[in-house]
């Protein structure tokens, strides 16, 4: 589900591969967090490429796992798992380059929004269909990708944005044909890997330190409303209606 390889130039490649749509279960989110933490803790690693195999980059959480749970344990687990994975991207001591193809939805936005650099294929789309699932969250990270009013419109309507649009906003560095995505991400990663590693690690820590808000705290605030919607039964009602 989560695979890691490190090349001879110090670039760690972390790959999500959970067919059919890369929607991760509770364990998958924690495994991803662990892989990122392990890569960042390795002094030989100078940059990370976070990408995926399959039809799309990430479709968020595994809704079937939530629906199959007899209580709220899966909800608590996936919320904690998402928070851990998003934080692991943000806190990774070296730059994380997200290489995005196809759909990037829900939890995928949390990963990409916390990445340092985004390379996207021409077919990539980004969105938060949370309101159609009776949930909230990751507006924190979408706000790092699109302007505030666009973020609100996307949140309320579940609309998506294209890679070209995000490139125009400045949040996506490059848009490339899909068959060039991996090589384009590695080109940027190898450029970073060629710099002094101590300086790059210091740069990552300093840039996090000047962020205007703490995305980890902001996201956990959002999650409180998801818990509320589930505890009151609203989320189940919305998911049932959406599935009809």
Automatic annotation (TrEMBL):
Pfam families named among the record's database cross-references: ECH_1
GO biological process assignments: fatty acid beta-oxidation
Keyword annotations of the record: Lipid metabolism, Lyase
A single GO molecular function term of this UniProt record: lyase activity
Keyword Mitochondrion appears in the UniProt entry: no
Protein's UniProt keywords contain Lipid metabolism: yes
Similarity section: Belongs to the enoyl-CoA hydratase/isomerase family.
NCBIfam families reported in the protein's UniProt record: PRK07938.1
The protein's name: Enoyl-CoA hydratase
């Amino acid at each position: 589900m989560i695979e890691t390889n490190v090349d001879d130039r110090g670039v760690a490649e972390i790959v999500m591969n959970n067919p059919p749509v890369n929607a991760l279960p509770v364990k998958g989110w924690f495994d991803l967090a662990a892989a990122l933490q392990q890569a960042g803790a390795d002094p030989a690693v100078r940059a990370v490429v976070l990408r995926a195999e399959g039809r799309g980059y990430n479709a968020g959480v595994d809704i079937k796992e939530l629906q199959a749970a007899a209580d709220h344990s899966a909800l608590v687990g996936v919320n904690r798992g998402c928070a851990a994975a998003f934080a692991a991207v943000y806190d990774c001591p070296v730059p994380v380059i997200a290489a995005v193809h196809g759909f990037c939805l829900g939890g995928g936005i949390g990963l990409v929004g916390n990445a340092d650099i985004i390379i996207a294929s021409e077919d990539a789309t980004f969105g938060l269909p949370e309101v159609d699932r009776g949930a909230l969250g990751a507006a924190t990270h979408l706000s790092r990708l699109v302007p505030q009013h666009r973020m609100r419109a996307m949140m309320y309507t579940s609309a998506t944005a294209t890679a070209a649009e995000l490139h125009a906003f400045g949040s996506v560095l490059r848009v490339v044909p899909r068959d060039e995505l991996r090589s384009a991400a590695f080109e940027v990663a190898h450029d970073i890997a060629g710099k002094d590693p101590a300086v790059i690690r210091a740069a990552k820590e300093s840039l996090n330190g000047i962020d205007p808000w703490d995305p980890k705290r902001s996201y956990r605030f959002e999650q409180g409303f998801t818990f509320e919607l589930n505890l009151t039964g609203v989320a189940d009602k919305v998911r049932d209606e959406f599935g009809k």
